[in-house]
Design a protein that fits this description.
By secondary structure, this protein is an alpha/beta fold. It is 51% helix and 16% strand. The protein is elongated. InterPro entries: DDE_dom, IS_Transposase, Transpos_IS6.
Length: 232
């Protein structure tokens, strides 16, 4: 028995159904009950509780597999942080993307001081496995203080206008946050967003850059089977 088959052992539904449901949940702003209705329309009687269990069990594994296949990150990194309120307490979602818009990593933290920036930089270097040539941030002083310790030889540009790429990258997260009626805990936000960024980003079509015929071809190809079709 292969590794992929053993992972789905004793599951009632075929592998393709599990993969399709998890892919739908992370690629579109829908909830578990929406997926239950969509699958019922296709003759698959899966419940929303089952979809939730599949998300918790297989989401991280799918995300880790996609991370292994992504291209190398660029040498120019855009860093930004946004406010996230959970149970009345304000937290900060730190995010870094390269010049192509690929998300390098995210981190949910309760502060945005120098120590929070240091922790975020260390996480980025571990994920990317190399230092950038240039980092672009807003004028938050924590970035400059942490850069002196972690990345002293890297060029640092601070401007509220040069960092639109990172700010635009927050939009899909904000959409899911509204649809989920906010996150409950920092651990929940970190776990969901790490999987969400890894699965959603590769299937996010750039409609303004592609012809309609190519978009239709890509949309037909994109599905649960494409998402995790092979173990590597």
């Amino acid at each position: 028995m292969s590794t992929r088959e053993s992972r789905y052992r004793r599951h009632r539904f075929p592998i393709e159904v599990v993969e399709q449901c998890v892919w739908l949940y992370f690629c579109f702003a829908i909830n578990y009950r929406n997926i239950e209705e969509m699958m019922a329309k296709r003759g698959v009687p899966v419940t929303y509780e089952t979809v939730r269990e599949w998300y918790h069990k297989f989401g991280s594994a799918y995300a880790a597999r996609l991370k292994k296949k992504r291209a190398r990150f660029g040498a120019r990194w855009h860093l930004d942080e946004v406010f996230i309120k959970m149970n009345g307490i304000q937290h900060y979602l730190w995010r870094a993307v390269d010049q192509n818009g690929a998300v390098i990593d995210i981190l949910v933290q309760p502060r945005r001081d120098r120590w929070a920036a240091l922790r975020f930089f260390r996480k980025l270097l571990h994920t990317a496995a190399r230092a950038p040539r240039v980092i672009i941030t807003d004028k938050l002083r924590s970035y400059a203080a942490a850069k002196k310790l972690i990345l002293p030889d890297v060029e640092h540009r601070q401007s509220r206008y040069l960092n639109n790429r990172a700010e635009n990258s927050h939009q899909p997260t904000r959409m899911r946050e509204r649809q989920m009626k906010r996150f409950q805990f920092p651990e929940h936000a970190q776990r969901f967003l790490c999987v969400f960024e890894s699965i959603n980003a590769p299937f996010r079509l750039r409609r303004h850059l592609e012809a309609v015929t190519k978009l239709r071809f890509l949309f037909v190809r994109q599905g649960g089977a494409v998402l995790v079709s092979s173990d590597s």
